[in-house]
Design a protein that fits this description.
Layout: H1 2-22, H2 34-39, E1 42-43, E2 50-59, E3 66-75, E4 80-85, E5 88-96, E6 99-105, E7 108-111, E8 123-125, E9 131-134, E10 139-142, E11 147-152, E12 158-167, E13 174-175
C-alpha cells in the first residue's frame, strides 16, 4: 500500500511540474491558499505535508535547452517525500525550520551559512544513506546524478527556496523507483 501511495504521489508530482513548466501561473490545487490563488502560483500537496510551489520558470539564453525555475517548498514536521532526482542543477536554501536530506546516490554539496555570503568550505556528501540536517541560511546543491529524499526535520515547518536549472521539456522530477513507460494509462 505504501508503494502505491508513493506511485500516486510521484505521478501527481510529475504531472504538477509538467503543467507548472508550461503554465507556471495556473492554480492546480483546489485547496490552494487564497494568497496562492490571488497570485496565480501553482500549489499542490505532493505528499502529506509536502507542498511545492513553482514561482517562476524561464528559458535560458546562456544555457541552451535549459529552463530556470524558482520554487518554494514547504515541509511540515516529519513530512517526507519519496526518493527522486532532477534533470539538471539544483540549489536549495533553507529559509526557516529544519530540513533533512538523505542522499541515495550521486554527490551533493552543503554550504553552512550560505545566506550570509559563505561560499565554503563545502561539505561533500557521497556516501549513500547519508542524512544532513540543514538549518536557516544553509544551502545544498547538486547535479542530475543525485537521487535523494527530503523531510521536515524539526518541530516547525521547513520552508526551502530553490533554483533549478533543468533540461527543457523533461519532467522536473523523476521518482527513483518508477518507470513512467510502465505506468498504466488512465
Amino acid at each position: 500500500m505504501r508503494r502505491l501511495t508513493h506511485l500516486v504521489s510521484a505521478l501527481v508530482f510529475v504531472c504538477f511540474f509538467a503543467i507548472a513548466g508550461s503554465l507556471s501561473t495556473s492554480v492546480a490545487a483546489q485547496d490552494a491558499s487564497p494568497a496562492a490563488v490571488a497570485s496565480g502560483i501553482t500549489v499542490i500537496e505532493l505528499a502529506p505535508g509536502v507542498t511545492p510551489e513553482v514561482l517562476a520558470g524561464a528559458p535560458s539564453d546562456r544555457a541552451p535547452d535549459q529552463t530556470i525555475y524558482v520554487a518554494r517548498f514547504v515541509f511540515q514536521p516529519d513530512a517526507e517525500i519519496f526518493a527522486h532526482g532532477h534533470p539538471g542543477t539544483t540549489i536549495l536554501g533553507v529559509a526557516s525550520g529544519s530540513f533533512g536530506r538523505t542522499l541515495e546516490e550521486g554527490t551533493a554539496y552543503v554550504i553552512r551559512g550560505a545566506a550570509a555570503g559563505a561560499t565554503g568550505p563545502a561539505e561533500e556528501l557521497t556516501e549513500p544513506g547519508t542524512e544532513v540536517i540543514l538549518e536557516p541560511g544553509d544551502a545544498i546543491y547538486y547535479e542530475d546524478d543525485v537521487v535523494h529524499t527530503a523531510r521536515g526535520a524539526g518541530e516547525e515547518e521547513a520552508v526551502v527556496l530553490g533554483t533549478l536549472v533543468l533540461s527543457s521539456g523533461e519532467p522536473l522530477l523523476m521518482p527513483a523507483d518508477m518507470d513512467i513507460a510502465a505506468t498504466p494509462e488512465g
